[in-house]
Design goal:
The chain is an alpha/beta fold and about 280 residues long. It is built from 9 helices and 11 strands. The termini are far apart.
Length: about 280
């Protein structure tokens, strides 16, 4: 075999390996091994096509998410719900379209463009929904704030899935419900360190303070997971903005303007654009 042919074979093999690795990292893992910036960039690039890609059905979402979760929350008069990685507003819409839901929703995401799509879809519910652009690894809420916390189809795409779950549980009230998902199926095998077996996920959730863990088949690639935070239920809740710390100084002292949120303690200003509070964009 002459050197020219050998070089072609080596180049071809190298390209094939590159394509396989790129497909794994960008399509299957959605950038999870490349850092949060890459994950966010991929979602920004697909934001306006995301619903079409995922083929969400509003009727199915209402039936399999909105209705059962509303039933779970029926004992709470005006529940406060946090949806981590809310994307284009999938879970908020599923709940808000339920006639018996009288609560308030907070949706956060690291992708500003995904939140832009969500803002358009959720505009008709006005003040019942608050959208915040921030990093889910450092939630700006005080401990035990929410009557339910959801994080659907996102844990495996975070840099540290276990730490993300701990942070979600931190802001959940004792006795309240965490709703999350477990990646399963063929693609889960190709995400080592980011996915868990059924038993391992059950054990992890119990280790971080959750009880009554229920893992059930849900979609082709996901189990739906429900779990309750241990401890005694806290019925009453403070107003939302009395539970949000300033990302700059950690204090709770807000002046709310039409175009910005101002911290009275450190004078940090966070823009509000199209109804989205931009904690990821600090102004002085």
């Amino acid at each position: 075999m002459n050197s020219f042919i050998l070089k072609l074979i080596l180049i071809g093999s190298g390209l094939a390996i590159f394509v396989v690795l790129a497909y794994w990292q960008l399509i299957i893992a959605e950038g999870a091994y490349l850092g949060q910036r890459v994950v966010t960039l991929l979602y920004d690039l697909t934001a306006h096509r995301y619903d079409a890609i995922k083929r969400f059905s509003p009727d199915m979402e209402a039936l399999f998410l909105g209705e059962p979760l509303t039933q779970v929350l029926r004992h709470v008069e005006e529940p406060l719900v946090l949806d981590i990685a809310t994307g284009t507003g999938r879970l908020p819409i599923a709940l808000l379209t339920q006639r018996s839901f009288r609560g308030e929703l907070v949706g956060i995401d690291h992708s500003r463009k995904m939140l832009g799509v969500a803002a358009d879809k959720l505009a008709r519910w006005g003040a019942q929904v608050t959208l915040i652009w921030c990093d889910a690894k450092r939630l700006p809420f005080v401990d035990s704030t929410f009557d339910m916390v959801s994080c659907l189809e996102m844990i495996e795409f975070t840099p540290d899935p276990e730490a993300q779950l701990v942070e979600a549980v931190r802001v959940l009230k004792p006795g309240a419900l965490l709703v999350t998902t477990r990646r399963r199926g063929r693609d889960a095998f190709f995400m080592p360190g980011h996915t868990h077996s059924r038993d391992a996920f059950d054990s992890l959730l119990r280790e971080i303070g959750l009880t009554h863990v229920e893992i059930m088949a849900w979609q082709a690639d996901y189990d739906l997971v429900l779990a309750v935070k241990g401890g005694r239920w806290i019925g009453a809740r403070a107003a939302l903005w009395e539970s949000i710390r300033c990302p700059a100084c950690g204090e709770i002292a807000w002046d709310r303007k039409e175009s910005a949120l101002l911290c009275r303690a450190c004078r940090a200003a966070f823009p509000i654009e199209r109804g989205i509070v931009e904690f990821a964009k600090l102004r002085r």
